[in-house]
Each structure stands twice: as structure tokens, then as C-alpha cells.
Design goal:
The protein has 321 residues and is an alpha+beta fold. It has 10 helices and 13 strands. It is globular.
């Protein structure tokens, strides 16, 4: 069902496998369980740990303003925020954008969301309490609330996203960037760059950062549904820097198969938003290409023992051949 619309030319599961389309079970068995030691998962599932590691490996991430771990600390939210004018509150163990609250501006008892909706201190207090209770966390475990700086995304993509911040998802295999897409928020997705909620996915040429195909709800699309911007004209600047963040994440985590989510800040350039040890498969639909063949090529033919910079340069030069 997952691939039936975009890969409708393939009549059977065996045809999909021959075309290199990776399904969830095969992904879990052949790549995730084989190359991602479960003891390493907390390095990417816990956003506080991820930030600390990223700093140690020279990877830029949004600045950590503070962490709220206990219910009695919630009342001191304004002290934690300090002089910061805008910020994001998110669960440390959240996934899929659940529980993320973006505040564009605030006063003592009026918090303004990216959509323009206003919240009271009580509303935000309740949201943080829900985070601590595990409402948004993986497995419903008790969580902590992470407060970090708001990314001010580049105007380069202002016509390609509705309210939310567009990001780039890169699948990294054994340290090599393998496949990439840009995720663009829409009105239907509620301003979130989540394909399953109705965001647009744009497949990107891994060696150039330019658009290949675009999809929404698994179907081909040419223009952004809210801004009418032509999606084929997307070209991601600082592409080498984007790829380098993904490549460095391999040494940073030890995970052989991972997803790196990257945003472009207007002042700081590409920044790692988060990492994922179990990245989804919709990236294949956005690219109109099965990823398994790419992974096999990396495994059998790409050089071993290179630095992150050398791996990125290999990928960039490979696309010129």
C-alpha cells in the first residue's frame, strides 16, 4: 500500500525488490538491526545527548537554552528562557515532530506561536507538563522538556514552505550520504515538515542538491499547494556543508544507517536539527527511486577508511562521472 501510487508501474512485491525499493521489514532486518547497535540509540533518541555529541564533533545545532526535568521546575519557565525573544520547546525523546511548540515572541503571559495563535502561560505550562509525563515520547516514557533557540530559516526558501521551517533529510549509510530530500510544510500539514501529515517531499540529487521530483500524499506534484512555487527550481545552497553534517554523524553516533535532518539558518548556515536511527522510507517516493541499490553500491564499491570530508567529496565527484 505504501508504494502503490508512485510505484504503480511495478506489479508485485518481487518487482519492487528488483527495482531496489526497500520495504520496512527488509530495512529493519538487513540494515537497521545489522548496522545499528541498540545500545547506541539513546545517542539520537535523546536530543540533549545528541546536542552534546554534535558540539564535540564540530556540528552546528540550535543553541540549547535550558532543560526542564521535573514538574516543580515548570513554574520557573520564564527564568529558564531569560532574555531569549523566541524559542522552541520540544520533548527530549519525541519523534515525528510531536510535542514541538514554536514560540515566535512572548511577554509575561502571552506566547505567540508561528501560526499567530496566542497562548497563555497556563497553556505553555500544561504543554510542558504533558511533555514531562511522556505524552509525546517514544514508548510513553517519562521525558524532559528541551528549550532551544528558534532557527531563523533562510529567505531562499520562503516561497516553498507554509509557516513551518523546511528541512533536508539525508540518509547516511556507512558514513556516505546515500539519498536526500527536502520536506516542505503545507497548510494541510499544519506547518510541519512531515510527509505523513501532508507536507511536500522533494527528492534531491545527492551530488548537487537540486530537485529531481516532488510528491505530496505519495502523488507527484509540480507546484507548492499554498504558495504555487515551482518545486523543480529548488536548489539547496551550501550543499557540501549539508552532506558533511550527515557524514560526520556516522563517526558521532557509530550508527551505520541513519537519517540526518538539517535546516538552513539565515545567519549560521546549515544546522543539524536531529538524527534518527530508524529513518522512514518515504524518501524513495520523493526521489522516484528505490534506495537498496544505492546502499549496495556504497557497500561494494565505495572506498573504506575515508574521513567525512573525503566521503562527501567522493559523493560529489561521483555524480559528475
Amino acid at each position: 500500500m505504501f508504494f502503490k501510487n508512485f510505484f504503480s508501474s511495478f506489479a508485485s512485491p518481487s518487482s519492487l525488490r528488483k527495482a531496489g525499493v526497500l520495504g520496512m521489514n527488509r530495512r529493519n532486518y538487513k540494515f537497521i538491526s545489522k548496522y545499528n547497535d541498540r545500545k547506541l540509540y539513546p545517542l539520537v533518541d535523546d536530543k540533549v545527548q545528541t546536542k552534546t555529541l554534535a558540539q564535540q564533533h564540530g556540528i552546528t545545532t540550535p543553541h540549547l537554552i535550558g532543560v526542564i526535568e521535573h514538574q516543580y521546575e515548570v513554574k520557573d519557565l520564564l527564568k529558564v528562557i531569560g532574555d531569549n525573544k523566541d524559542f522552541v520547546i520540544k520533548p527530549a525523546h519525541g519523534s515525528g515532530g510531536k510535542g514541538v511548540l514554536v514560540i515566535k515572541s512572548f511577554s509575561k503571559d502571552c506566547f505567540v506561536k508561528a501560526s499567530g495563535e496566542t497562548l497563555t502561560f497556563h497553556d505553555v505550562y500544561k504543554h510542558i507538563s504533558n511533555i514531562l509525563s511522556g505524552l509525546y515520547s517514544l514508548g510513553g516514557q517519562y521525558d524532559v522538556a528541551v528549550i532551544e533557540e528558534l532557527v531563523h530559516f533562510s529567505n531562499i526558501f520562503k516561497d516553498y514552505s507554509y509557516q513551518g521551517i523546511p528541512d533536508v533529510r539525508i540518509i547516511v549509510y556507512k558514513g556516505y550520504p546515500a539519498m536526500a530530500m527536502m520536506r516542505l510544510a503545507t497548510k494541510a500539514s499544519g506547518g510541519r515538515a512531515n510527509l505523513h501529515q501532508g507536507a511536500v517531499g522533494v527528492g534531491l540529487d545527492i551530488s548537487k542538491g537540486t530537485a529531481l521530483k516532488a510528491v505530496m500524499n505519495n502523488l507527484p506534484i509540480e507546484f507548492h499547494p499554498d504558495t504555487n512555487a515551482k518545486l523543480s527550481e529548488i536548489s539547496v545552497p551550501y550543499w557540501r556543508e549539508h552532506l558533511l553534517i550527515g557524514a560526520k554523524a556516522y563517526e558521532m553516533t557509530g550508527l551505520g544507517y541513519l537519517g540526518a535532518d538539517i535546516v538552513l539558518d539565515a545567519e549560521k548556515g546549515p544546522m543539524m536539527l536531529e538524527l534518527n536511527a530508524r529513518p522512514g522510507l518515504a524518501i524513495q517516493i520523493a526521489n522516484g527511486l528505490g534506495i537498496e541499490g544505492v546502499l549496495k553500491r556504497i557497500e561494494h564499491y565505495y572506498p573504506k577508511g575515508l574521513t567525512p570530508e573525503e566521503r562527501v567529496d567522493f559523493v560529489l565527484n561521483f555524480g559528475k562521472k
